[in-house]
Amino acid sequence: MKFLLTYKSFLFFLCILPAWVFSQDLPLNKDKLAFFQKGPKEIIVENFNAKKESVLKEIIPEYPALPSDFTPNLAIRDSLIDRLKDKGEIKIAMDSLEVLNHLNLSEAATQFLANIVFSVNRLGAVKSLNYVVKKGDTIRFSYTMLKGAGFDELEVLEAKEIRYSFSKSPKNVEQTGEFVAAADGIIIFNLTNRGITRSKGKLIVSRKEMQQKLSFVIGCDTLRHIVKEIKQLQDTITEVLVRKHFSIPSKTDITQANRVTLNVPMPGKIPVAIAYWFGSSDQNRNQWKEWIDADKLHSPLELYVAKELFRNGSYPLPEEIPAELNFSIKDNNGSSLRQSNGNSVKTTYATPTLNRKWNYACFSFQKGNSLPESLVLEVQNNSTLYDTVTDFEMIGLFLNDYQAEVETIVATCKEYLTIKAI
Length: 422
Description:
The chain is mainly beta. It contains five helices and 20 strands.
């Protein structure tokens, strides 16, 4: 009769990335798992077109391909740029980083904010021109006085800060300046005429947006796969070594001996444990039969042994201490496992477990020790009036080696690079 082994069922899920993202599954070892648990480092790049090669080497130092090794593919470039615009990010598997060699961000176009000729009245009159800019814009301007006495002043203000200041501009001489806007806001050009005659000048102002910054972050999706393999396994098998129903005459019956001796041959293989139960009262023997009839798969002794070996509580069996019986178990070499007074004894090959009573016990067997060829059960009836009807059962628990296909859950890491426009 076998113990049934219960295996837990595992569910797994599959993360699906966009179809154009290639995949690479890597074993998720402890070092890699610890790296991603700490949080990956973010790399911010302001001028990707110029820094493409260094970016690739920083992300993956052993990356061999250089931008010069590739002929730019406009279809790939446009696909990447469109995804950046639509989704705000791109995910690329780490084994497909060569697609970055085809990514070129469009250079920002120069926008002219002003290209005008204007006049300023005399004696301190002011001409103010305002232009909206964004943080990071490169502002370039040129001013040329075309007519006047040379007493014009030009101030360029961002918020309240003076970025440029010119005074006493020479006639027909171009004066230029360039700076990067520190914040979103308004740039003010104040032109003041300190002369006694009207002045006339030309102002050209342009802005070039800062190229979009890119953020690069290496991430990891942990996937779980079921791997099937043939493994050498063990389960437990129980065998009934003896199951006996017999009667023992009283000691006053001179026609028969008041002693019964049973020889229990030991199997060739070494058991993990043996257990026995002995019952002589009608109540206990009836209860034992009811338990056996109630569970056809497992006898009461099997359930008792399982609790004892795994130390998972106890499984009490019908208990008794008949005063008129002596009961002992020895091996064929004379060593006692159970003495007639009910004591269980440790031997060189067997150790009694914790939960044992007068009429039942379990012995665990040590590996590597030689076993006796047989055990000898001896029961003596000391009653002067009655014969005694008894039931005795002994089982052995053995390991059974077998091969089976086993499903194992394996964790893998799908590494990818996330690129975001910021």
